[in-house]
Structure formats: C-alpha cells, structure tokens
Amino acid sequence: MSIVRTLHGDITPNELGFTYGHEHIKCEPPFWQEKQMDDLLLDDKEKSKREVMDFKKHGGHSIVDATAVDYGRDVPAVADIARETGVSIIGTAGFNKSFLWTARLPAHLQALVGDYETYGQWIENTSIEGLADFVIEEVESGLEGTSYRAGQVKFGTGYNRITPLEEKTIRAVARAHHATKAPVHSHTEAGTMALQQIEILTSEGVPMENVSFGHMDRNLDPYYHEQIAKTGAYLSFDGISKVKYAPDSARSEAILHLVAKGYENHILVSGDTARKSYFKHYDYGLGFENIIANWVPRFVNEANQAGFDGGKLIQKFFVDNPARCMTFKER
User: How many structural domains does the chain have?
Assistant: First the structure.
C-alpha cells in the first residue's frame, strides 16, 4: 500500500489534498541565533499557528515542513500546530547546507549523536553509514528522539559548489532513502548545482522520480529546468512572490515553458516562507495565505491567456504532483 507519512501518522496519497511542498512553520536556526538575525527566527507558536489557519481557511490541506535538523526544528510545537489546526504536516529528516554547520550543536542533539561542539564536527567525524542511520531513525522512529516521524529526507548544497561534507550528506541521505523508501528533497542554493547533485544521486542508485529539487525559481534558466525535468525529477518553484529575486511573471513564464514541453507532472509550487517579514502574523508580510488566495487565481488567468487550462494545472501542481512526490515507494 502506498503511504504519505505525516507527523500524526500515515495517510494515503489521495488524502493529502491541496499541498504546499516547501515551507517552514516554527524553527530557530542555531546559525541565525548566533548571528542575532531575528528575522530568520520563527519563534512564536501562536503566530505560526495563525498562519497555518489562514492557509486552511482558503482551502489548504497539507504542508511539507522542510526544516532539517541543522535548521533549528521545534518538532513538538509543529506537531501541536498540526493537531490543533487539522492541517496535515510532513516533517523532514536529513540536512541542509554546510555554511549552517559552524553553529553549536544543541545539547539535546549532543545527547543523541555524540558530544560534538558543532554540526560540522558531527558530520565530519561520522561515517556516511552513521549519518544514514541517524536519518533512517528519524523516518522510522521519530525526529530528534520524539515519536513524530519524518515523511521525507533532505540534503543541501551551497552556491555553485558542493563541499566534501555536503557530498557526504547527499550520499547518507541517498542510503537512507534506499532503506526507508522515503521521498528525497534537495536544497539548491539559488537554484544551482542540481545537475551535479543528480550525478551523485545516480551514482548511489536513487531514481530521480523520487526526488524534488528546491529553489528552481532562483535560477530561471529554461534549458537548465528541462535537463532536470528530463530525469523524471520534480522541480519546486518555491519562492512565489519574492520579487527581490524575480517578478512572479518570470516564474509563471518558466513554469509554462515546462508545461509546453510536457513536464506539467513534474512541477511543485510553494513559498519557502522562512522569515518573520514574510509572514502576516509576525510582521505584516504576505503570509501563508498569499499563494492559495492570490497567486493561484493570477496563475490561472496567466495560463488561460497562454492557451492552457489553468485550473487543471493548479490541480496538478498542488494536489496530484505532491501526492505522487510525497509517496513512500513500495519496497
């Protein structure tokens, strides 16, 4: 039987419903704490809960919380938000990117993985198999020693480069995927290095139809997008309305280019909403409701004008594609 794993148990893919594929709900990344970057600390459970309720009010059903272990997860709080709102939330095992790993390893993680001072020391001094075992445990038993199990595994790399430690985590996550059959998500810094990540994953025998690549709208290169889509992977356009990077018209154009090439089944859409200033209930931003309430009707109009069926594409991007992408492949 095919399943999707949420923090509160396994559901069928058909139960997932309208889904944001890459968000952050409540987290306090140690790296940004040490830098005193308050905007990057989502530290108020009630404000985060109100954001999730706004999403639900407009018809949202599920959210993938892509917060990995090195990004300061608050697993119990997010699980509470899922229970209190009735929105299904999928948790994430694995790692992010290496510049975060200079931060001090919290005491509760030291108790789980060893008395290392930083994330970097832990990753450097642990074998690939040892890191894979940690990820497997978070999928099969629970995140950070809780009973709330992860529904995907994640790795990440930096801007235009893959460090040796990042390659180590890619291989660990690949092996955790083989052991658990959990879907795989990739952080690509500014949309770079996806093709190089694919080479490493392929060397580990990971089928690309099990993998989604984040931040594709930070690198609005149609040729690059096609090369990724050809492998069977999912492309996550998860920076909607971040006009400091690009206007939403450019995102729609890139998405419709892939649709025109026949890749509409490989597209996910979300917001990667990870700053107080992006949230309505933290700091007057657009908030979780923006995509479902405002971007969706805009995109339907744009798609219809371009000769596509915008409503059918929204069904694919937010319902059908996440249901396939987030499914554990049968062993």
Answer: 1
pLDDT at 331 over 90: no
CATH code at position 302: 3.20.20.140
Which residues contact residue 199 at a Cβ distance below 8 angstroms, ignoring those fewer than 6 apart? Answer: none
* Strands laid side by side in the 234-237 sheet: 19-23, 62-65, 88-94, 150-157, 184-188, 211-213, 234-237, 267-269
Reference 235, options 202, 197, 203, 292; nearest CA is 197
In a domain, 330, yes or no: no
Rounded Cα gap, residues 262 and 255, in angstroms: 11
Which whole number is the average pLDDT over 134-139? 98
Over range 276-284, report the average pLDDT.
97
Question: Which residues form the domain of 49?
Answer: 4-325
331 within some domain:
no
pTM: 0.97
pLDDT in tens, 40-95: 999 999 999 999 999 999 999 999 999 999 999 999 999 999 999 999 999 999 99
- Is the separation of the CB atoms in 323 and 13 below 8 Å? yes
Task: Give which of 109, 68, 57 is closest to 91, Cα–Cα.
Answer: 68
The answer to whether residue 258 is domain-embedded is yes
d(C-alpha 173, C-alpha 191), whole Å: 19
Cβ atoms of residues 26 and 71 within 8 Å: no
- Determine, yes or no, domain membership for 190: yes
Q: Tell me what the pLDDT averaged over the chain comes to.
A: 97
